Amino acid sequence: MPWIEPHQNERHWIAQWASTTPLTDRWMTAGAVHYLPCHALIVITDGQAIWNINGHRIHVAFGELIAIEQNSVIKVLEGGSLDAAGWQIQFQTYALFNNAQEVMKCEWHVPAGNTFQKVQLTGGFLTSISDHLREELPDEVGRSMVENQHLLYGLLTYVYRTQPSEPQTIEEGIKQSIAYMQEHYDEVITREQLARIAGISQWHYSRKFSELCGKRPSDYLAAYRIYRAQEQLLLTSAKFQEIAKKSGFEDVHYFSRRFKHFTGVSPKNYAKTLQRRRVVSMSPLSAEVLIELGIIPHAVMVTPLLLSGHQRQLFKQHQVELLEVPQYVINIERIQQARPELIIGHYLTEDTKKKLRTIAPIITGLTLDADLLLTQFAELFDKREEAVKRQLQMKNEVNAAKQQLKAIIQSAAAVMVLRVEPFGYRYLGGDSTGVSQLLYQQLGLSLPESLKAGEAWFNPCSIEQLYTADPDYLFVEIRVMENFRAEENMEKLKESSQWKNLRAVQHNRVFYIETSLWIDGCGVVGQKIIMEQVVSCLIGPQTDGAQ
User: Fold this and answer.
1) What is the DSSP letter of 209?
2) Which position among 43, 72, 193, 304 has the lowest Cβ density within 10 Å, counted as fewest Cβ atoms?
3) Are 289 and 345 in contact (CB under 8 A)?
4) Which residues pair with 460 in a beta bridge?
């Protein structure tokens, strides 16, 4: 079939489904490169990741659809513990000629964007296509071409949805000037420049800015510069003069005066006052570790459905305000209402960081490993003695658990953690962070040989892979997600012959675990609780098996 380039006036074309495949663990492995020979639609069904698509850095997250033109190259920049999962639907496009009498292969371009386009799917649509994206059991009849085409065109409908275009408003002009401040805060910025960017007069700009932002442009810029200076004081060893210049202050004495006006202390003494500042944690894990060091955060952002019992009790005991948000949502307004003096978190997107940087200094990119997080916070808050003491206690707890599990460890019995999701199955890798580090590195348990190649935190797992792995002990996490249920997928798995023939199933060695504890609650306290559960399951009375 010849290749043609359609003319601009050609309106009629069709899309032909080619394949639907789950994203493999290589899509979660930093440095992995993927070449797309066909056009593709990638649906992200869980987690998030950072990719480079044809030279453009892009953040992808749960519920998003990425349309990508053929011959594109995608490099994974960050995956691993970001826990991305999804499906790739490849397709070809054909042009229709002579009243649809002739069909010829043609080029296709995304309607908006350069070689790729990202759109947000609704929860209802994701639910409606869950059956199409769910891993099919081997004894089921394959999807018909009609079903595959229906899935493809349903996704393409989202790609071609157009957003109404409106002329720039004064508010949008103000936002553009704010973006300019954030990008050039280390340079000389005048009100004339900002008003020109907003497209209004200087007098009108100052008045409208104050109405929208609650402060004058000069005060907004000064606060933003001070926040960046606070971050540098905490994270670098640079001298005050250098920090002042990098923050947009040419005069170090003026910088010191402004800094003290905003923080109440001089730049020299700022780090010493960190322990008594209003800290807002972007995750329960960070808040839990802070509390273990004697630092009580003012507030913590939580998804109630995923908050473990021990963390809820800990936060209540220490009167930590819970900023409750839906899963995968960061509520900037709630954080702003908490009036933080420092915001800390693990992974934040560039867009989220831009918004948070207008509220307070932020420290992000923190590890998900509780032991290492103790060290990071100890340096930041000058709590080294407390951290060493707690780390020694954690080490002793691990050694005690290893002693109890000695027979299991020496026998090299295969221990597997299976995640059952609304859209398929995944397994916990053996060389990642969090509970993976705890089970396979610290405790020394053995992952099934056939699964050791998995490089991601959670790796795609087919029914056949599970059957091949055939673990001696199987921990099952029925994934908890808002608006989606994985129980139906669990029931289908139980009905399969592969499940019934697993050694762990036949010997009553299947144990169900909670997402809120094992995945989201593996902190200083949570780690001990998880080890107690592991010991109880592997060497205690095994009465919680699969039916």
Assistant:
1) H
2) 304
3) no
4) 426
pTM of the model: 0.81
Place of tokens 């990638």: 42
Distance from C-alpha of 354 to C-alpha of 332, rounded to nearest angstrom? 11
Give the separation between CA 306 and CA 317, rounded to whole angstroms: 19
Average pLDDT value for the chain:
87
Rounded Cα distance, 535 and 350, in Å? 41
Amino acid at 418: L
Instruction: Spell out, as residue ranges, where the chain has pLDDT lower than 70.
Output: 1-11, 79-82, 97-101, 123-124, 130-144, 162-168, 541-547
Tell me the helices (H) and strands (E) count for the chain, helix number first: 23, 21
Residue with tokens 């606070």: 230
The pLDDT tens digits of the residues spanning 114-169 come to 899 999 887 667 777 766 666 454 444 444 678 888 889 889 988 888 655 555 68
Q: Decide: helix, strand or coil at residue 543.
A: coil
Q: Which of 385, 213, 368, 363 is nearest to 277 (CA)?
A: 363
Of 291, 282, 314, give the one whose Cα is nearest residue 387.
Answer: 291
End-to-end CA distance of the chain: 54
- 76: helix, coil or strand? strand
Q: How many CA atoms lie within 13 A of 320 on its CB side?
A: 30
Q: How far apart are CA 21 and CA 148, in angstroms?
A: 12
> Using CB atoms within 10 A of its CB, is residue 54 exposed (0-12), middle (13-18) or buried (19+)?
middle
Task: From residue 490, give the alpha-carbon distance in Å to each of 46, 332, 457, 514.
Answer: 17, 36, 21, 14
* DSSP-assigned states of every residue in 236-264: ----HHHHHHHTT-S-HHHHHHHHHHHHS
Helix (H, G, I), strand (E, B) or coil at 224: helix
Those residues with Cβ within 8 angstroms of residue 368's Cβ, 6 or more apart along the chain or in another chain: 81, 285, 346, 433, 434
Query: Which amino acid is present at 457?
Result: W
Strands (E), 403-499: 415-421, 424-428, 458-460, 473-478
The 10 Å Cβ neighbour count of residue 334 is 16
Cα–Cα distances (Å) from 545 to 287, 420, 509, 511, 533, in that order, read 34, 16, 5, 6, 14
- Give the pair of three-digit tokens for residue 419: 């995640």
Q: How many residues are listed for the chain in this entry?
A: 547
Q: What is the pLDDT of residues 225-238, one digit of tens each?
A: 999 999 999 999 88
